[in-house]
Amino acid sequence: MIPLTTAWGQRMDNLATPPDPGEGGHESGGLPKYEGAPEANLGFVVPSISFAAAYLRMWRLYTNFRIRSTRGEYWKAYLANAIVGLILLAVFFVVHNLAFFIVYYAYVLALIIPSIGITLRRLHDTDHSGGWIFVGLIPLIGNIILLVFLAQRSTPGPNRYGPPVTSLP
C-alpha cells in the first residue's frame, strides 16, 4: 500500500502533530510560511463594527467616495440592506397594499447612491480604483471579479486612498 502524503511531502497519517523543521516541514505546523513584503507586517488590526453601525455609517457617508471602508463594514451593511428589503417585500406580500410596494421601491431607489458609495470605499480599501465597479457590468465574469475584489483583505497601512480605518462608531 502506498502511503498518502500532502503536497509538501508530509505523511497524512500523522497530520495531528506538526513536523520538525529539520524534516523538510515548516515552522508553521507543516504549512509554508508567508514570505511577503516586510512592509506588509505592520501589526495592522481591522476594527470591528456592528450591523446597525455599518448600516448607519453607509447612509451617513453616502456621498463620501474618497475614504476607505473595511470588509466587515461593507458586508454587514450589504446584509442589513438585504434584510430591510426582504422585510419590506414580505410586508407587501402579506398586506397586499400598494403603499408598501411604493415604499419598497422608494427604498430601493434611495439605496442606489449609498450602495455605490460603500462599494467604491471598499474598493479603495483593497487599493483598487473606483473604476473597477464598472467591471460588474460584464455578465458573470465581471461580477465574479468584483466579488473577489470586495472580499479581499484590507490593505495594511496607508494606500493611495488614505490611511486605514482605525476606529469605527
Can you give me a brief rundown of this structure?
The chain has 169 residues and is mainly alpha-helical.
Describe the structure.
The chain is mostly helical and 169 residues long. It folds into two domains: 35 residues, no CATH class; 101 residues, no CATH class. It contains five helices and no strands. Helix 1 packs across helix 2 and helix 2 runs antiparallel to helix 3. About 13% of the residues have low confidence.
Write the SSE topology:
Blueprint: H1 51-60, H2 71-95, H3 98-110, H4 112-125, H5 141-151
Could you name the ranges where pLDDT drops below 50 across 5 or more consecutive residues?
14-19, 23-38
Mean pLDDT: 80
Q: How does the overall form come out from the CA principal axes?
A: globular
Total E-strand runs: 0
Share of residues in strands? under 5%
List SSEs in N-to-C order: HHHHH
Output the structural class: mainly alpha
The total count of helices amounts to 5
Number of domains: 2
Could you describe the largest sheet, including whether it forms a barrel?
none
Radius of gyration: 22 Å
Helix percentage: 40-55%
> What is the distance, rounded to the nearest whole angstrom, between the alpha carbons of the first and last residues?
59 Å
